[in-house]
Inverse folding.
């Protein structure tokens, strides 16, 4: 596998694809910074408020790392940022609703982490080298996501609401955070080592991790119809995981 150690080495199709993957991550990092920042307002306890503030700061720091990589590549991150859709609209999210935030942390933020696990070993080394520290923070975010899930599971009425929001947000996450599971772009990324695994493999790893915590708490996957309804493409191997934990 050819490795790229400096910005001057990347050109053409490789550079275009690198920038596309970085942009997907940059959109996610800047959006999660805003979502966590906003959630300071609706978090129910002091402990949760302080944690939301800490997570917002960490997501901003992740965004800053990408800004520096963009600048080294001669790209203005401010221009990239201006192309980002509004977080609430993109994720179908109510930013003032604590249950929405808790589901977001458990689903959307973790989907981003599973992509970053791929980038950690990317053939573009200046990017890959920045990702270990990012993933360390993300472990903390998911730990809190799981903790929140357990808390909601202990309250029947709230858990019902959590499940409803999750039924909407997981299909959106599969469709928007991961994109199409097959295609020439996917194959190209794996071939040149920008990613180590196919999107199908990454989605399945994400869901398999999630299902362990779900079973512990009695949370079910949305019915397959919910994925079809918004046009989220689900491959047979993924379908099998979703079918393994249905209401
Ligand atoms: Fe992040
Ligand atoms: Fe995060």
């Amino acid at each position: 596998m050819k490795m790229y150690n400096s910005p001057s080495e990347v050109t053409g199709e490789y550079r275009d694809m690198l920038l596309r993957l970085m942009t997907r991550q940059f959109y996610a990092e800047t959006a999660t910074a805003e979502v966590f920042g906003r959630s300071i307002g609706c978090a129910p306890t002091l402990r949760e408020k302080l944690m939301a503030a800490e997570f917002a700061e960490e997501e901003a720091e992740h965004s800053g790392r990408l800004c520096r990589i963009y600048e080294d590549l001669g790209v203005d991150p401010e221009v990239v940022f201006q192309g980002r859709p509004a977080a609430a609209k993109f994720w179908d999210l109510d930013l003032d609703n604590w249950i929405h935030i808790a589901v977001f942390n458990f689903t959307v933020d973790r989907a981003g982490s599973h992509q970053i696990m791929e980038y950690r070993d990317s053939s573009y080394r200046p990017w890959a080298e920045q990702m270990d520290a990012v993933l360390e923070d993300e472990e903390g975010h998911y730990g809190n996501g799981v903790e929140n899930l357990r808390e909601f599971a202990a309250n029947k009425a709230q858990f019902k609401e959590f499940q409803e929001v999750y039924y909407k947000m997981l299909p959106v996450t599969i469709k928007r955070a991961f994109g199409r599971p097959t295609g020439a772009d996917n194959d190209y990324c794996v071939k040149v080592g920008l990613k180590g695994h196919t999107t199908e493999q990454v989605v399945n790893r994400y869901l398999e991790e999630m299902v362990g915590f779900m079973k512990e708490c009695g949370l079910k996957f949305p019915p397959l119809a919910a994925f079809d309804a918004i046009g989220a493409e689900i491959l047979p191997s993924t379908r099998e995981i979703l079918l393994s934990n249905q209401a």
Notes: The radius of gyration is 18 Å. The chain has a mean pLDDT of 96. DSSP finds twelve helices and no strands in the chain.
